[in-house]
Structure formats: structure tokens, C-alpha cells
Amino acid sequence: MSNYDSSDPSDNSSVTSGIESPPQRLSGILKRLGPGLIVAGSIVGSGELIATTKTGAEAGFSLLWLILIGCFIKVFTQIEFGRFTIATGQTTLAGLNQVPGPRFRVNWIVWGWLFMTILVLAQQGGIAGGVGQALSISFPLTENGRQFNEVQDSRVKLKVNQALLQRYQQESGENPSTSQTKQIHHIQSEITLLEKKLSTFSTSPKSNDDIIWAAIIILFTTGLLWVGKYGFIQTFATVMVASFTAVTLFTVIRLQRQPDWSINWSQLWEGLRFSLPEPSADNPSARPLQTALATFGIIGVGAAELIMYPYWCLEKGYARFTGPKEPSDSWMGRARGWMRVMRIDAWCSMAIYTFATVAFFFLGATVLFRTSLNPEGADLIRTLAEMYVPVFGPKAHSMFLFGAVAVLYSTLFVALASTALVASDAVRVFGFRDDSEASKKTWYSRFCLAFPLIALSMLLMVPKSPEKLVLASGVAQALMLPALGCGALFFRYKKCDPELRPGRLWDLFLWLSALGFLVAGAWLAWFKLFS
Questions:
Q1: 3-state DSSP call for residue 103?
Q2: What whole-number distance in Å separates Cα of residue 324 and Cα of residue 140?
Q3: Alpha carbon distance 376, 384 (integer Å)
């Protein structure tokens, strides 16, 4: 049985003991940060590595403004949710269940969460598929898998060289210099060799190695979640996420030294001037705006992470340290102090995931967009690896595959554990369990067994397109954002203690956050229904 040992957010006793005064010095505050860092470390795999780079690959720099807004405006709702939980000791779903509106056992927002969670499990299946692809490229299990890797590697390299040749020919014009001529001849030779190699395969090899690896990973993760012996792996994966993100930032910086891949000010201005991308003749399958709107739901803190964040605040002890609400100056002082810690935690996490998101977007918009490579299907991971080739050369693929496995698996593991934690509370909100710690652990253990298997079954429905499962979750989360905006405004104006209410500037940004959620959700719904 899972030994998930934390205080029960749904149990009132969790906030009636362990009262502590909040830290006043910055050093003390930094020691108490954590919930936002967990969230930031758990979103790189799907939102940043897959969805954000795909947006850059399809749209170039033109949607940079949407990426930045998507990271920035969510933090206001995130903090408002945290404020509610610290002041009341209640979980997110318990609070959202109080929002007025249609009810059938629970209210409309909780039903929306349930629908979204089904597709979040699909996203986790897509992430498992990404891990499976990375492992099947590194360690093919069958001869068909080895041949499949050889053919697909050659096809991707051929496409990159063809795009580079076209660019060099356009830039050199009718009178190329000596160095340009040599470079063009070198690329033409590479293209000839790759075409000759591909011609030796009469049919394209088929391989299920990635699905086999994904199944192995899912079963392994199920065992870890069940027995609870995953501290080392989670710590190792978190370190790898940080390292891989740092490597990505380094890659973006080093690209500035290469004229073929550098980012100039006109491109940045193009990305910041609220323009919409034009359809690409070189990439007719791309749907950049639809992809970006789906990405909007999961970049930074997605809708699922917004709901999850207060649970981690409870696990960290912010509400328990504040204590149950009482009409006293001491309680008010503790509440303000721990809310200050929570705000710093949220803003620090926002800075981290914004830098990571922009770095991955830049790589997609430079390397992938300029070579007309779109990360999708069986070549999702193989295509993403090309982003690092201009800086690291032939070693890039091995380095990327190692980092991708760590980043994607970290996201998969934390996401499954987090989803199980929220779902165990949802059972209580729906009225199917009591408030006891034993009941919560029982349901948590059940979900730790069921959710990985559900995620795997959803991957098996779309075995060769894991990015579709990730983007489907992004669509569901983007459509859920307007409801969460309503919840944040409800918490602010109906549940916030008068003495804890923020100022007018904060209210302005909170309204802008809710409005942004509404616009993104409505726009995406229109695209899906009428476009």
C-alpha cells in the first residue's frame, strides 16, 4: 500500500495543530518555499518540451506574446487560490464546489474538473509515449526497431539538409562566394548519400518498441507509487529537470553566435506585436494558432496545476502553521505572514517556468521552424532532438535523449501522484468517502494503481501520436480556465476576510487574469466548433 505520509488537506485536524509564526527574514522565507517549485518542476515535460516547442515550430516567433501572457496572467489566480486555502484550510475542490451555479451532487466547476482530469490522464499517456520513444531510440528492443530508427533518423536528417540547402541557395543568389559554394556542395553530397541510403529500404519498417517501453515505464511507475519508495528517483529527476532546462538556456544563448540560427531584434519584435501567424506552405499540416491556444492551457501553471497548487500549500503546512480562523490579531498576523511566503513562492515559480517556457519556444521557433520540422507522431522525440544539433553537433541526440527521459519521466511521475491526490479529495467532495486520514490513503492508493493503467490505455488508442494526447489535455485545460477565473473572483469577493483583502491594483490584474482565461477558452472553443 502507498505510504503517502502527509497531513490530510481534507481533514480539519490538519489545521488545528502545529501553529508557527511566519518567517520575517528573506533567508527564513526561502527555506519555506516549495509548492511552486514542485509545480514548476513537474510541467517542463509536457507543456514546455512538447507543446511549447511545437507552437514555435508551427508559428515561428509570431506567438511569443501569447506564450508570455499565458505564463504571466495565471499567477494571479494561483495566488488567489493559495490565499483561500491558507485562510480557510479548505482544499481547492471544496472551495470551488461553493461557487454558485448548476449543481448535480456537486457544482458545475467540479464536474468540469472531472472531465478535464480524464484528458489529463490522456496527457500522461502521451508523456509515457514520449518516454517510450526516447528509450526506443536509445535502446531498440527488436530488429524492426533498429531498422525503424535508421530509416527515421535518415529521413529527419534529409529534411534538415534540404531546408538548409534551400536557405543557402536563396541567400547566395546567382553569384555565390567560394565558401557558400563549398557549403552548398557539401549539403548536396549529404542529401545524395541520405537518399541513396533510404532507397535501400523497399518498405518502411514498422516498430512497436516505443509502446513496449511505454508499457514498461507505466508498470514500473505504478509499482513505485504503490509502495511509495520513490524519494531518490523524484530527487534525481528534479535535478535532471533543472539541468536539462539549464542546457536549453545555454543552447539558446550559444545559437546567437551562429548566423544561421541566431535570433535578431526584428524577430523578437514580430513576436511581441500581437500578430497572428500566417499558414505555412512549407508545413501544410501545421495549425499554429490552434496549437498555441491548446498550449495556453498547459504552459506555465496549467488548469490542472492551478487546482493542485493549494494542495501542495497544505502539504507544506502553510494553513496548519496559520491555524484555524479566529478573531484575533495573532491569527491575522500569521495569516498575512504565511500568505507573504506563499506569494513569494508563486512568483519565484513563475519566474522559473517563464524562463524555461521561453527558452523551449525559442528553440522551436529557430531550429524547427526554419527547417520546417514539426514534432509529431512517431518522430516527436527524434525531431525535438534536432533543436540541440546546431550547438552540440552529433552528440546532441544522445544528450537530448538522456535529458528527455529524465524530464518526461519526472513530469509523468509527479503528475500521476498529484492527480491521484486531488482525485482522492474529489471522492470526499462528491460524498463517497468520509474525512478520515485512513479513507483518504485508501482512495489515494487505489488511484495510484488505476491512473497509470488508464493513461497507458489512452496511449494505446493513439499509439503513434503522443503529442495529440498532450494537446487534447491542453484543450481541456484551456476550456477549464474560464471556470477557474470565476472561482478566483468568487474567492476574492465572497470568501476573503476583509482584513486580508489585497489592493485595487491586485484586483485589476486578477480581473485581467479572469478575462484572459475567458478569451482564450472562448477562442479555442470557437476554433474547435466552427473552424
A1: strand
A2: 56
A3: 9
Confidence of residue 52 (pLDDT cuts 50, 70, 90): confident
Distance CA 58, CA 294 (A): 13
Q: Could you tell me if 419 and 447 are in contact, meaning their C-beta atoms sit under 8 angstroms apart? A: yes
3-state secondary structure of 107: strand
Q: Do the beta carbons of residue 122 and residue 458 sit within 8 Å? A: yes
- d(CA 381, CA 371) in angstroms, rounded, equals 16
pLDDT at res. 282: 59
Judge whether 221 and 413 are in contact, CB under 8 Å. Answer: yes
Separation of alpha carbons 519 and 31, rounded Å:
38
Distance CA 110, CA 115 (A): 9
Please give the DSSP secondary-structure letter assigned to residue 436.
Answer: -
**CA–CA separation, 446 and 452 (whole Å):** 11
Is residue 517 pLDDT above 70, yes or no? yes
At residue 433, φ and ψ (nearest 5 deg) are -150, 165
Nearest 5°: the CA angle 362, 365, 367 is 95
Q: What is the dihedral of CA 428, 434, 438, 440, to 10 degrees?
A: 0
With a CB cutoff of 8 Å and minimum separation 6, the contacts of 264 are none
Q: What is the pTM of this model?
A: 0.83
Cα separation, 293 vs 43, in Å, equals 17
At 10, the pLDDT band (50, 70, 90 cuts) reads: very low
* Contact between residue 56 and residue 364 where contact means Cβ atoms under 8 Å apart: yes
* 141 pLDDT more than 60: yes
Quick one: DSSP state of residue 15? G
Compute the residue count for the chain.
531
**Sign of the CA dihedral running 120, 288, 487, 97:** negative
pLDDT of res. 152: 85
Q: Helices 108-138 & 396-429, crossing angle to 10 degrees?
A: 150
For 479, the 3-state DSSP assignment is helix
pLDDT above 60 for 396: yes
DSSP state of 22: P
Q: Residue 400: how many CB atoms within 10 A of its CB?
A: 27
For residues 41 and 312, the answer to whether their CB atoms sit within 8 Å is no
**Most confident range, picked from 212-221, 245-254, 262-271:** 212-221
